[in-house]
């Protein structure tokens, strides 16, 4: 595949949301209520968060941030709270209606929507024990993005580390080595301690202290 054939970030984000919707449609009621990797959020809360900004235009996003006193985490929680009355079937329908990211999720040509969907997909799958192979082109794109995404604290977590994926062609940075499957590297960069068991190298203890 050459650069002209490679899918765009928006195309990958749309495909990722469709994959996540397919997973959600198959979950049992108990799985929807299972704790995710996101602190204080159940699986249903993570699902609600992924599409929570799609119907907000820029003024509405600003109003939500003002309500949250400029805290992104509080703004995210407000979106989750708004979705609490929805049934799981309605949440799945929301994904199907918004498979192509809109609003804030469409920023950076869809990279925000792509990274959010890939990471939160794993936030759901890991605690449920549902293994998955992330399409390599999506995984590489998100690794390259979160590595430098300040709001996700990626640059701080990987500073002074040499990252190398053992299952796809991807490496980045200089310093203490940190190796493992690309998915585990991604989740560790995103601050998920659950992924540390899948990583190796002198950089493992360093990033563990930063999570």
Descriptive report:
- With 211 residues, the chain is mainly α.
- It folds into two domains: 9-128, no CATH class; 136-210, Nonspecific Lipid-transfer Protein, Chain A (2-Layer Sandwich), CATH 3.30.1050.
- The chain is 53% helix and 6% strand.
- Strands 2-1-3 form a three-stranded mixed sheet.
Helix-strand layout with pairing:
Layout: H1 9-26, H2 29-32, H3 43-50, H4 58-67, H5 72-83, H6 88-97, H7 111-128, H8 136-146, H9 154-158, E1 161-165, E2 171-172, E3 176-180, H10 182-189, H11 203-210
Parallel strand pairs: 1-3
Antiparallel strand pairs: 1-2
Keywords:
211 residues; Nonspecific Lipid-transfer Protein, Chain A; 2 domains; 11 helices; 53% helix; 6% strand; globular
Order of helices and strands: HHHHHHHHHEEEHH
Radius of gyration: 17 Å
Number of helices: 11
Q: Would you count the extended β strands for me?
A: 3
- Work out the strand percent: 5-15%
Mean pLDDT: 95
Distance between the termini: 36 Å
Helix percentage:
40-55%
The profile of the biggest β sheet is: 3 strands, mixed
The gross shape turns out to be globular
Strand line-up across the major sheet: 2-1-3
Structural class: mainly alpha
Q: Provide the domain count.
A: 2
Task: Catalogue the unreliable spans.
Answer: none
Question: In short, what is this structure?
Answer:
This protein has 211 residues and is mainly α. It is 53% helix and 6% strand.
């Amino acid at each position: 595949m050459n650069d002209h054939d490679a899918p765009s970030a928006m195309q990958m984000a749309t495909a990722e949301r469709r994959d996540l919707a397919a997973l959600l449609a198959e979950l049992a009621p108990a799985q929807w209520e299972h704790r995710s990797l996101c602190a204080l959020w159940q699986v249903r809360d993570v699902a609600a968060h992924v599409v929570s900004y799609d119907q907000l235009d820029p003024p509405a996003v600003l109003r939500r941030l003002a309500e949250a006193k400029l805290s992104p985490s509080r703004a995210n929680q407000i979106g989750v709270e708004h979705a609490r009355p929805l049934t799981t079937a309605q949440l799945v329908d929301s994904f199907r209606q918004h498979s192509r990211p809109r609003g804030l999720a469409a920023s950076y040509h869809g990279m925000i929507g792509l990274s959010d969907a890939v990471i939160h997909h794993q936030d759901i799958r890991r605690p449920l024990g549902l293994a998955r192979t992330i399409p390599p082109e999506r995984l590489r794109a998100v690794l390259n993005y979160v590595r430098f995404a300040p709001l996700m604290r990626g640059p701080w977590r990987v500073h002074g580390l040499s990252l190398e994926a053992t299952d796809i062609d991807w490496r980045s940075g200089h310093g203490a080595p940190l190796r493992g499957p690309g998915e585990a590297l991604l989740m560790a960069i995103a601050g998920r301690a659950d992924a540390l068991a899948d990583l190796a190298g002198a950089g493992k203890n360093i990033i563990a202290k930063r999570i």
